[in-house]
Design brief:
The protein is mainly β. The strands form 2 sheets. Strands 2, 4, 5, 6, 9, 10 and 11 form a 7-stranded mixed beta sheet that branches.
């Protein structure tokens, strides 16, 4: 069983930076694909970034490519989302998702609000 907890959200001015963390309890992230998604009010949840723990391959949505970076720690327990040059349109609840062998786990989300 994988339980995910996101943290690091908050209120930031446009152009600012935040670092989100997704920490797992129970099993580690090894052999999982871990991703960040976000959902703004009135909109569908959308993909932001993902990392394959085993290969280290990363992928980004076009809207955040070059501004956000997804990374992992060495313990196997935490994935980060470094967000720079934040824009008001980045305002959303950010969710962590872990997938392995068809099993999908979601965290509860953390709010990111970017003021103009």
């Amino acid at each position: 069983q994988v339980q995910l907890v996101e943290s690091g959200g908050g209120l930031v001015q446009a152009g600012g930076s935040l670092r989100l963390s997704c920490t797992t309890s129970g099993r580690t992230f090894r052999n999982y694909a871990v991703g960040w998604f976000r959902q703004a009010p009135g909109k569908e949840r959308e993909f932001v970034a993902a990392i394959n723990w085993s290969s280290g391959n990363v992928d980004y949505a076009d809207s955040v490519n070059g501004r956000f970076t997804i990374s992992r720690d060495n313990t196997g327990n935490t994935v980060y989302l470094w967000m720079h040059s934040l824009k008001p349109e980045d305002t959303a609840v950010y969710y962590c998702r872990a997938v392995r062998r068809g099993m999908v786990y979601w965290g509860q989300g953390t709010q990111v609000t970017v003021s103009s």
